[in-house]
Structures are given as structure tokens and as C-alpha cells.
Amino acid sequence: MKKSFISMFLVVSMIMVMLAGCGQKESSSESTKESTTDSASDSTEETKSESSDYTIGFVPMTLNNEYFIAMCNGAQEKADELGVKLEIQAADSHASAADQLTIVENMITSGVNAICIVPSSSEGLETALKKCEEAGILVFNIDTILDESVTSKVSMDIPFYGTDNKAGGQKAGEYVKENFPKGTITAILTGIETQQNSWDRRDGFMDGAGDAIEVVAVQSANWEVDQGYDAAQNIITANPDLQLIYCCNDSMAIGASKAVKEAGLGDQIKIIGFDGASEALNMVKSGEFIGTVAQDPVQMGKLGVENAVKALNGEEVEQYLDTGSSFITADNVDKQIEYITPYIGE
Amino acid sequence: MEKFMKGKKIDVQAFTLYFGGIIILLAFTIICKINGKDFFSVQNIMNIIQQSAIIGITGIGASIVILTGGIDLSVGSVIAFVGISGGLLLKAGVPLPITIIACLIIGMLIGLFNGYFVSVGKVPAFIVTLGSMQIFRGFTKVLTDGKPVSGFEDSLAALTSGKVFGIPALVYYVFILYAIMIFVTLKTKFGRRLYAIGGNPNAAKLSGVKIRKIEISAYAIAGLFFAIGGICLLSRLSYADPNAGSGYEMDAIAATVLGGIALSGGKGKVGNTLVGALVLGILKCGLQILNVATYWQTVIIGVVIILAVYADKANDRKAE
């Protein structure tokens, strides 16, 4: 009996500790400091400036990925700058529509004024959007665009801020066209077979490169390092004269570069990645990749928060913004590392 | 004396669970109030029940199987398979009621498949259901090439979100399903036999219980409840996701053990699984409302599961 009491108290005290930790985190932005530390005192109403009354919910796909960490830190920086509170919640391990719905419901209860969300899938958020509309909460769509079949179910406007993946692939393709001879023997590693951004990145690249490449293999490696390694190994075995591997994300490119190195073909086979992850940037610097396409998650996060606040203040906001992408090579990699590091380093 | 001890032990289990649940609920209510957030509101309680509903419903199935001394890992895959199958049927113009019946039959058939290999085939339940977890996740992706299905009529969403006396239908389903299964497990011959084959299979066999029949039925019922969970999730999201339900097998088992059902079988009450699912739901909801970092939420939930069972076992430790 006694022990069960002790256990229960342990649980409760554990939760208290967590909450204390969470309170500390919040106090790092000065505007919320008053409301958390002085909540017992009476003056909270007066000390808040006009916009600091707002709380913005931010829901990335997951937080297991540098890309989303950079995005959240961008959003947090903007929130601090504008003096609004930011609540970041993500599904823990897998991007799941059910988890995102739960998060949105709880954010509504928690009293956020607007939600910026990266949908786990383009079509999965219908119920969540309806609940936001009912509760009068503004929604901003970041990074992965919501399908029209979903947005048409609600009558509110949902602005989108993200990147055109096809244009990003095209930039890589154009680089190849300028710097490689016609008919370069090329393999392409794509992501999960059915995802739109995988197609877009592949098609954009093929458009941009045109007749500069002769594609001998297109294989899916499901965005994963190990599968990229296996796929590249098999492609090299089948095509010993391969000259270029274009990978639709950096993880697969990292796998492919290991396979290339092991085969001793580092000089013959060049590698291009996509995403601009920090490990990939280092590999561009060291020459293992000739380049990677970098999107701008920081900007996406910032735009989401900035426009959410604008809209809450009753101002007009842009309905569609392309945050752009750039092709990172040895020439501009240092600049990119300098730009992104503050947003991913702890 | 032994009987007295036994009675007391069950009390401790239930007491710890309810007491713990109330403490957690109170703690969140107070902390949220301090932070100016309304945790203990009718709306939020409804949210929590809805958020816990899928785990609660599938938890019934998991509990039944665990009572027989087995385990079922196919929960998430059945949810996804039923969701995609149901989605495709609806898209093909099959009326909702027929789709639901078809989904329930699919779930039961998967359960029968599991039950056959466990009971007749004598393959360990963990392995059979590990296999069927893979098989049906695979089939789910085969059906649509891994693509989701969306764009349903509003009647699908209304199945769970439609309100009766201001309360969403999903909330009723949870309580009705639990009421039925509490009755079945505690008041019927079938229920007593479930406990018998889980608690002491040899004795059950000697006393003439048809172990195979009961065991296979348990898996079939579990499949049925997983399918109900799948339909509810499909309706709640109005979206069929081939990746839906991954990890739910662990959540359903967690709710079961939190509710005090012994993994060794034959001990515990199905009704308490609902409380287990709600405790998990309350934790998740409260931590999210308080904006606790995502990773810490997982840590806290894991700690709570271990501590709760640790507290349950206080008497066992004393006995040793």
C-alpha cells in the first residue's frame, strides 16, 4: 500500500519537474517571463504589449530531423523578436495524421490564436482544419502543401509558405548541364515511391539537365542512408562506367557516397544530394558531394510566425510564398554553413 | 486467509490505478489553471476521451488476448488495413453500413488467422502476430501502392463526431463497447473460460474446457475490436492512411498493463484497461497543453507505465 503511494508521488513529482523545466524554457523570451513568473501578481495585463497576447502553435512533421529543427528555431527567433509566445509540438517518432489531429485539438484547448503546421500528409488534416475553423483559429500551411481536396472542405483561407521542389531539382539539373559533358552516365535515387516531392525533385532534375545526362538507372531508396548505400552499390555493379548519382535527399546521397568510396570510384562518380543537411554541407566542403540543393526551412518558420501575427493584427497577408532554394557547391558552401549553423546547433 | 489476501490484492491494483489517475488529473487541472489554461472543462474531457478512444477500443482486444496468456501485435496493421479497405470500398460507392460490416468481417478473419496459428499451429503468439503485423501492413500498401485515400462524404466523419445530447458519438461507442465486454468477461461462461485458460491451462483442459475454441475466439474478438478501432480512426480523420496505427500495438498493450491485466494471463479486469487508456490520454493531453517538449512526454509516459506496474506488484514482492 505504502509503496503504491510512493510510486504515485514519484510520478507526480516527476511531472512537476518537467513542468518546471518547461516554465524555464518559456521564460527565455522576455514577454512571457512576466506571465509565468508573476502570474500570481496582478499586473500581467498591463505589462503585455499588444502582440504578446498572442500564442502561436507550431507543428512540424517531426522533430527527429535537422530540417524541422532549423524550421522551429527560425520560428522561435521570429516569435521572440515579435514578442509572441510559441508552442512547438510534434509527433514523436513517425509522422502521423492521427497524432497531428490530437496535437491540434490540444493546442486549441491550450488557447493558441493561430497554428502553423507542416502536414504529415497532404490530405490527412481535414478534421483538424475543421476544428480550427470552428474554434476561430487561423491556420498557416508550411513546407508541404495541403491538397485542395482538404482545403476546399473549410471556408477559411490557408496561406502556404514553402518551396517548389521541382524548381530545386531544376537548379541541380542546370548545374549539371553547365558543368558536365553531354550524355553523362547518370543514376537517380528517389525517395518513397508515392510521394509527390520525390517525383518533383526527380522530374525537376531531369528537366534542368536535359540531354546532359543519360539516365541508366532510377531506383527508390526510401529516403534512407542504408538503402541508398545498397542501391548505389547495385547500380555501380550493373553500370561500372557510371559518372553521376543524383539523390533526391541527402541521406541517400550519404549512403551512395559510401558505396562509391568503397568501390574506389570516388574520382569517376560524382554525387549530388538534396536538402542541405549539415552533414551533406560538410561533404560538399570536403569534396565528397559536388553539391546539394538547399531549401530554406528557417525562412519558412519565420514567415509562418510573422504572417500569423500580421493576420491576427488584422493585416493582409500573402497567400503563397516560395521561400526558394539554392544549389550549394564548394563555392558557396561556407556561406550556407554559416547561415544554417545557428539554427541547428544547440 | 489466502482468499482474503487475493481480494485485498485486487483492491490495491484498482486503488492504485484510480488514485493515480485522479492525482494526475488533479495535478494537470491545477497546473493548467496556474498557467491560465482550462484543462478540466467539458470540452477538454470530451477531447481526452476521443483521443484515447482508439487505444481504448483496441485495448479491449489486446486485453482479451492477454487474458488467455497470449499477445497480439497486429493491432496497428489491422487498423491500417481496415482503414484502407474501408476507404476504398466507400470510394467505390459501397454504402457506409455495408462497408462497416465488411471491415468488421475483415478484422475477425485476421483474428481467426492469428488464432488458428497460435492455437492449432502451436506457433508462439508473439511470432504469429509479429508475422501478421508485417503481412497486413504490407497488404495495406499493396492495396493502394502506399497511397492514402481521402475525400470522403461528411457522413463518414459524422459516424464518430456526430453529437447525441451534445456528446460526440465516439464517446458513447467507447463506453458501450466496454460495458458489453465487462459483462462478457465477468458474467458469462465464455468469460470465465478466458480466465481459466490464461490462469491455468492444464486445469482448464482437465475440467473439459475446449481450449482451442476459446483461444481462437479470443483472437477473433480481438481482431473485431481492432477493426472497430480502425473504422473509428478512419472516421475521426476522414482519411485513410496506410501508415495509420503504427505503434498502436504498444499503446494498446500499455493501456492493458496499466489497467492491471497480467501479461502472464488469467488475471485482471478488462474495464480497467479503459482507465489505463484514459490515464495515457490524460498524460498526453496535459503534457501537450502545457507545451512540454515532445521527447520528454515519451519519457514521462514510459516512467508512468513502469511505476504503475511496480506499485501493482507491491503485494507480490511482500509475499516473497
- CATH architecture title of the largest domain in chain A: 3-Layer(aba) Sandwich
The CATH class label of chain B is Mainly Alpha
Q: Could you please say which CATH topology of chain B applies here?
A: ABC transporter involved in vitamin B12 uptake, BtuC
Biggest sheet character of chain B: 2 strands, antiparallel
| Strand segment count of chain B | 4
Instruction: Compute the average pLDDT of chain B.
Output: 88
Multimeric organization: heterodimer
Q: Which segments of chain B are poorly predicted (pLDDT under 50) over 5 or more consecutive residues?
A: 1-8
Q: Could you name the CATH class of the largest domain in chain A?
A: Alpha Beta
CATH fold name of the largest domain in chain A: Rossmann fold
What's the helix-strand series of chain A?
A: HHHEHEHEHEHEHEHEHEHEHEHEEH
Using CB atoms under 8 Å apart, which protein chain pair has the greatest interface?
Answer: A-B, 55 and 65 residues
Strand content of chain A: 15-25%
The fourth-level CATH homologous superfamily of the largest domain in chain A is Response regulator
Radius of gyration of CA atoms of chain B, rounded to a whole number: 20 Å
Largest sheet of chain A: 6 strands, parallel
Strand order in space, largest sheet of chain A: 2-1-3-4-5-11
Q: Strand content of the residues of chain B, in percent?
A: under 5%
